[in-house]
Give the backbone structure.
Amino acid sequence: MLQVTYRFAVKNATGSAFGAGDSLTITAKRWKFNSSGAFIPEAFEATVFNVSVASLANNTWVNGATIDNSTDGYLGGEFVITPSITPAGNVEIWMQYSTDGGTTWNTDGKGRRLAIVSGTSKVGIEL
């Protein structure tokens, strides 16, 4: 289930720094129910993580932008993680939560680990 305030965090666990052209994008098609109980999918696919991971050192993190879900009220969604990472090894994708509107966040490595990806293989997850 999606929280009121959340963001995505990425950890480079490949053993090497990412290259200048390396990237990782997360897109989503989220959903909710209206007041009549009807299923309402998001009208268009949204990019929810599009932060440069170029030159990210091994064993370090990059955090995405705060996503304020208080108005939209999405309950879940289908998310696609698209990496384009040159070093062999794992990249961890986490979801972090804030209970105070985005001022305080989980410590990196805490929250909910969503996936481990590598190379250029897309991964789809449902939340």
The longest strand covers residues 23-33. DSSP finds no helices and ten strands in the chain. The chain has one domain: 5-126. Strands lie at 5-13, 23-33, 39-41, 46-49, 61-63, 67-68, 76-84, 90-97, 112-117, 123-126.
